[in-house]
Amino acid sequence: MTALEEVPVAAPQRAVAGRPARRGLRRREWLWGFAFIAPNGLGLLAFYIWPVFQTLYYSFTEWGAFGGHTWIGAENYAKLVSDPEVLKALKNTLLYAGLVLLGVPVSLVLAALINTPGLRGAAVYRVLYFLPVVTMPAAVGMVWRWLYNGDIGLINYVLSLVGIEGHHWVADPRFALYATAVVGIWMTVGYNMVIFAAGLKGIPKDLYEAAELDGAGPIRQFFSITLPMLSPTAFFVTVLTSIGALQVFDVIYLMLGSNSAALRNPAIDENQTIVFLFFERAFVDNDKGYAAAIAFVLLLVILLLTIVQFRAQKKWVHYA
Amino acid sequence: MSNRWWKAVAAAAVVVSAVACGGGGAESGGPVTLTYAIWDKDQQPAMEKIAQEYTKAHPDVTVKVQLTANKEYWTKLQTAVTGGSAPDVFWMNGPRIGLYASQGVLQPLDEQIAAAGVDTAAYPKSLVDLYTFEGKKYGLPKDYDTIGLWYNKALFDAAGVKHPDATWTWDDLKAAAAKLTDPAKGQFGIAAPADSQANYYNTIFQAGGTVISADGKKSGFGDPATVEGLKFWVDLIKAGSSPTVQQMSDTEPTQLFSSGKVAMYYGGSWEANGFAKNADLAGKVDVAPLPKGKKQAVVIHGLANVAYAKSKHPKQAADFAVFASGKQAQQIQAEAGAVISAYQGTQETWVKAYPQFHVQAFIDQVPNSVPLPRSKNTSAWAKHAEDLLLKAWTGEKDVADAAKELEKAVDEELGKEK
């Protein structure tokens, strides 16, 4: 929108009646532009922007068991700020996001390794690391839940071989969130790696050649050329990963949720994240108004953290 | 120029919305497809057979059986009802009927029951009453279930412990559980999960306690007798005779029992089907009546078929719901051995389906049975029970304290119902 206003009008305005030809043309171009973005724009309006306002409206209502809602003002928010469950879930969500961000440097290093010239089977590695990204989260969650099983899980079996006694990783409140974060990293590393690899491809070769002539070794090259040149990519990856991690639901639901209808996992209350709490309130307890308020708080948290990240990029991101 | 363009957009929008909103309006006479939602995989073949039988009698109606795991069934159904697109016919249980009937989600079936000539005296009265709301029948009972003590004969024989029988008391069970526990093998005497229907409701009633008062206004969780019934299970975990809550969260009690890691398991009559099909358990498993506490008691519950009020084909939906609980359908169900059919005289058929188990134990306990606790909005307070009792089961809270706290929370929810 602003881009259109910034187009300089080159033709000086003559005091002649009738519109200059330029303006008519611009209007038609403007219409065509809109016609082209309409399919996407309408989708965005219908499925993202409109629901945001709907959620905001519903967060001021109370719902009946099967739909129908009444306006109750800010009651949901009043309840929310003093709800220990919400605070705990927010804390867990931030911790989880922090843990998953540890995967970003890992994916950068992996991308650099895979990009090593003359590496054999690079394509195979790339596929292997990318597989978790394209695997259904439901399958991922179930398989990892089995791996983490305290009695018959593979992880504890391997630990027992080296004489370490394992725990019930996903049923023990002390470990459940960390266990889930490992899976969260495992699921995002491949995607971030591919983006970093693309970024690496974009660094001009002659920079490295010049550095080599000046006598810089590979380590020095990495820190003086690769890292600064990759910082825009790193920024992009960091922002996307944190947004994704703050919205985590699937792995939590699958790995920490109830295994059967009648039995609750003893670890879930201490380790639930905000979207999981939203799900329980909205669809299990059917308290949809309160759930909408929770969702809106999450939106504000994500917005705030993203603004902070955009502000902070001036300090460390170099746009060459 | 621009004007024409906007007109085109507007016209397109109208066409799109017309297509999206079209397709409504039920026309009778044409072929009709009904969806029938269920949650038990073991019963699916029987339900599909019932659907086919119905189509034989009504060639213009096809019934599609839709299976959803029990874990997600109620969440999915409630969301579908909120969105106005629930299945035409579906299974209903005791704890939820109050909510669904009071909110106008279900059709009263009295007319269809009369038209089909069904005599409701052929069903257990307590179950017919369970699905009657403000004088109208919203569901016809399809089955009933009680709980039994499933046990692994092979493990009993290996440990030299006498098999359970109708004379067993709580003490007999505790002693046997201790003897059957072998930490070296990772084997436990019994599974003691915090499961209301299968576990602690039964022991609460056996101890003489209550869950919800007869008038539905007060909770009985704080009653010392009720606490006894809860303690029974927590003590078994404390004694090491049962896996911990964490272990049972990682691996379900059913799985632990099926893999021979647990020797005894409180399970419903609905388990017979799965255990019979499990080749690993062939010849190893049997069932006995529940051991008695102060008195003998067992929880009885039964499902019903109900019809969705906003179905596109309300008449056919109601008709099929009555058919699926009728004599012919219950006979099919009993022959498949899926569950104990509710219709008078079909129980024998179910018992005959399992010559390898003493399933008569489930039927024999009916005279001592207590209906599954419920109120108008059961899940509102059941949620608190799940949360608080879990903390007692893990040892985080003392059982009596948790029960007291729970009593307060349940009373509060019951107060909201009026």
UniProtKB/TrEMBL annotation, chain A:
Residues that span the membrane, as ranges: 30-50, 94-115, 127-147, 175-198, 234-256, 289-308
Domain ABC transmembrane type-1: 89-309
Name of the molecule in the record: Carbohydrate ABC transporter membrane protein 1 (CUT1 family)
UniProt main location, coarse: membrane
Species this chain originates from: Saccharothrix variisporea
GO annotation, biological process: transmembrane transport
Alphabetized InterPro entries for the sequence: ABC_transporter_permease, MetI-like, MetI-like_sf
Origin: domain of life: Bacteria
GO cellular component: plasma membrane
Keyword field: Cell membrane, Membrane, Transmembrane, Transmembrane helix, Transport
Subcellular compartments: Cell membrane
Family affiliation: Belongs to the binding-protein-dependent transport system permease family.
Bilayer disposition of the protein: Multi-pass membrane protein
From TrEMBL, chain B:
One Gene Ontology MF term: maltose binding
Endpoints of the signal sequence: 1-22
The protein, known as: Carbohydrate ABC transporter substrate-binding protein (CUT1 family)
Family recorded in the similarity comment: Belongs to the bacterial solute-binding protein 1 family.
InterPro entries reported in the protein's UniProt record: SBP
Keywords: Signal, Transport
Keyword Signal annotated: yes
GO cellular component, one term: ATP-binding cassette (ABC) transporter complex, substrate-binding subunit-containing
Source organism, top-level taxon: Bacteria
GO BP field: maltodextrin transmembrane transport; maltose transport
A Pfam family the protein falls into: SBP_bac_1
The species this protein was found in: Saccharothrix variisporea
